[in-house]
Amino acid sequence: MRKPNPSRSLLIWPPLPLGVYFKKKADQLPFPLNQEGCRVYSLARHAIWNACQSLQLGSGDVVLAPAYHHGSEIEALIEAGLQIRYYEVNQALEPDPESLQALITPEVRALYIIHYLGFAQDAGFWRQWCDRNNLLLIEDAAQAFLATHQGQPVGSFGHMGVFCLYKTYGIPDGGAVISTIPPAFPAAVAETGGWRAFKRHVNWIAARRAEVGRIHLFFKPIVTWWNKKWHRMRGQLTIEFDMGNPASPPSALTNYLLPKILDDTTAERRRENYRFLLKHLIDMVPAPFASVPDGASPFAFPVEVHDARNFLMQLRKRGVVGLLFWLNPHPSLPVEDFPRSKRLREGLVALPVHQELTLVDLQQIVDAVMDVRVKKEATIGALV
């Protein structure tokens, strides 16, 4: 096994290549950006809030939402005036129709589904289910921009489809929404996005230059810690749940760079990267993600591990910066009532799979994971 190079820093988030400014604009925009009713805000949580207003979802209304969630989408729904009634996902990370049926009361207005990690739920089935039950379907495609299901764009089945553009490309921000009643255009003044674009450029360099990668691996945890502390000092929710101003438009740099960075090969390149990692690490991948549908646009590569925090720390020493996928649920969730979601939060680790990774990068990820795994097994063997 090759010794992993800990000097190069590989992140979940796609970086921003330095040469993007010299690229031509894309000839065609992908869904939903090619739709007249599409609106783009700074963040996907802003898109959710605004679309709830246009669909007249609000005070007294209840939405069925998954217990396995990020939290920012739940905060946006609550800020829009809705009440949350949680459901547990099944082994395939999908809602269970019978369990959902038991949750329906006259106050329930909508079903919220999440296309986890860029893998499509059966949105066509859920649209029919919602129509039969007189409910609105909200598709969270924040991690599934560019994904398709049965030849149709993910996010196009529901009454609302929400997308997080910067989870797919290294732009500063951008949350898009398409709904049966288009929401208002963002009215606030746009930020430049310069600092966030700079950080994404640094991420790109850190994946290619050892000296920058070493510095990046050292300082990134410190910056993350300070951001969380700053939010607590200001009496705000954590940065993951902070709503901000829902009228915020995308930054000026996002508007400028997005047409240049769009590439119709992105989803396929992500699938290819995913298949490479799957070939070497398939025994660590949970069943719902153990194959790659042609329409998937993977956001990250998931592995299930014990002692996930230590696993991530050891990966970081080898230059691979993963994350414990959705560790912190929204405060409104009664965590113990949803054991499967709790187990997922405690043991599902997400690794990089984005389109900017090279074959050398992918091999570094495989070598790092295998090295940590071998050392862990050797340690357990010595204790037995």
From TrEMBL:
Protein name: Aminotransferase class V-fold PLP-dependent enzyme
Native species: Pontibacter populi
Sequence similarity: Belongs to the DegT/DnrJ/EryC1 family.
GO MF entries: transaminase activity
Keyword Ion transport attached: no
InterPro entries, sorted: DegT/StrS_aminotransferase, PyrdxlP-dep_Trfase, PyrdxlP-dep_Trfase_major, PyrdxlP-dep_Trfase_small
KW Ribosomal protein (keyword) present: no
Pfam families associated with the record: DegT_DnrJ_EryC1 (PF01041)
Keywords recorded for this protein, A-Z: Aminotransferase, Pyridoxal phosphate, Transferase
PANTHER family: DTDP-4-AMINO-4,6-DIDEOXYGALACTOSE TRANSAMINASE, TRANSAMINASE
Gene3D superfamilies the record matches: Aspartate Aminotransferase, domain 1 (3.90.1150.10), Type I PLP-dependent aspartate aminotransferase-like (Major domain) (3.40.640.10)
